[in-house]
Amino acid sequence: MFGSGLALALFAGWYGFPRILYRSETQPLQFSHAVHAGEKAGMACGDCHVLDAAGRFHGIPGTAKCAECHSAPLGDSKEEKMLVDDYVTPSKELPWRVYSRQPDNAYFPHAAHVALAKIPCAECHGPYGQSEAPRVYEVNRITGYSRDIWGPNISGIASHPWEGMKMDRCVTCHATHGRRDGCIDCHK
Amino acid sequence: MDSEHGKNARFGMVIDLDRCDGCGACMIACAVENNVPPGHASATERTGITWMRVAAVESGQEYPAADVAFVPMFCQQCENETPCISVCPQNAVEIDPATGIVGQIPQRCLGCRYCMTACPYHARYFNWRDPAWPEGMDRQLNPDVSPRMRGVAEKCNFCHGRLHAAKAKAAAKGSREIDPADYVPACVESCFQNAIVFGDLNDHESEVAKLARGADTFRFLSRLGSEPKVYFHSTRPWVKEMAESTLTRSKKENGHG
After folding, report:
1. Above 0.90 for ipTM, yes or no?
2. How many angstroms separate the Cα of B183 from the Cα of each of A151, A188, B159, B206?
3. CATH number for B198
């Protein structure tokens, strides 16, 4: 009796709860990093994810960037045809979901981490730069934040070092680099 | 004092009250920069939010001696026993040792408003309601500053978002030292009279440090000993005297409801 109650509670907590808490959304296009940053297109991360001279990180590139090569289809994939017909030709932006998007009041500068500290992208984003296709985007129904902030494990224990980007992780890494930041350094 | 990440700064300002003509451009520039929404119809001087507020002060003398001064009043960035810091039960205000800026952390604020009572300069404001912008204006918000929610206090932080941007610009060039030209608060930039000078008081050669040491420079309510980092300049004796007295409150402020 107790065993089955416990099993039920665990099932509800570990399997059911995350499904109630998070809503899944798919990305608008099956974009492949493996194709673009790999041999086929041979691009560097910074070609699309630009850090400009003013220190601004431009994040996910706009349709204009894709149009440089995809003004007409290069191959015969369905996804590429969709890109050309639905976005490039009418010059519409793709409504990408950003996995790593922090709450609005958090301030994160790529410039300090990439240009000064020379931390590799993968240390924070995992092997996403080699991915074949975007994974499912999960959004917390209560806060509206991406699941990647908390991390995929509901206990909050990361099984890979790049999982989760809560304040705790920022501060822990800063501490190992001997930094002690004030609240307004990371909040805006 | 040097920190391991570059030299510590002490940002401060000198405002020339003999130049200020009370135009109010700084108030607008400040509100736009810091995502302060237009006041609600029922807002008063105390319930509205004006990080920067220009007050008109009269000398009280009869013509021909009658005179008026315009005083931009905002967070004076007190350095010693900072009143708002010492009363905050939440540790939601802290002084950044690297910049001397008194930072308000809305995430931590519980809305008790003790800091507003404690502030000798009436420089703190409270969000009585959630911020709201007229249709269209909400698309022009400054992405470097996050709007605050109902129930928290706020105040001037020397346009900290601009310091973030200046640091990121330096970082992109591989440097940890900001270029002073990249960090200019919105009020300073907008002042047509060039009445406000901003910079690092620790840098003895900077214009602001020289002016702060110069003649006819004073601070408001200096007798309290809170050591503000905002200085004022005027050659008019009555203005200097006024800086040591409490400003006369308007009828509206004293009234209830």
Report:
1. no
2. 36, 16, 9, 14
3. 3.30.70.20
